[in-house]
Amino acid sequence: IPPVVAIIGRPNVGKSTLVNRIIGRREAVVEDVPGVTRDRVTYSAEWAGRDFTLVDTGGWEHDAKGIHARVAEQAEIAADLADVIIFVVDSAVGATATDEGVVRMLRRMKKPVFLVANKVDDMAQESDAAALWALGFGQPYPVSALHGRGTADMLDDLVGKL
Ligand code: GDP
Ligand code: MG
């Protein structure tokens, strides 16, 4: 059975765009309207000859429970079933209170976490990514899921952990 990599994070940080980037197809639904992806979607993925299962999460936005609780709950379910977690933060926005909730949950999980600072579309935005060192998951990977910047380096390290 291929190892499972779960992509978690708040709505609109670019999780589905990153999935598209990794699987190389326009298959994961990406919408400008937050919350379009439904629950968890699973894909078979491959990088550098290594097969893995990629789990995208999302789609709880307009739930009555409130976004904070829903993000935390979905992240916990996905993280629980994953071998490795990609935690995506919007580097332009920085870590929000919702992100901090996910951080606390991930610390309890004690699984490998790759912190992706997404939307680093150019060099000038790399300092935004560096600020996310403070979350305590080591080096944040500055990535532009949209343009592909930095994703290869992140994936090289990721498959090294599988
Ligand atoms: P999700 O809700 O976390 O799955 O986020 P999506 O993948 O649906 O992306 C939300 C919005 O952010 C879309 O408009 C994407 O085009 C945009 N987006 C995603 N990645 C990037 C990126 O690296 N740079 C920029 N500038 N926009 C991005
Ligand atoms: Mg999505």
UniProtKB/TrEMBL annotation:
Residues of the signal peptide: none
Domain EngA-type G: 3-162
Superkingdom of origin: Bacteria
Binding residue positions for GTP 1: 9-16, 56-60, 118-121
Family per record: Belongs to the TRAFAC class TrmE-Era-EngA-EngB-Septin-like GTPase superfamily. EngA (Der) GTPase family.
Functional description taken from the UniProt entry: GTPase that plays an essential role in the late steps of ribosome biogenesis.
Assembly notes: Associates with the 50S ribosomal subunit.
Protein name: GTPase Der
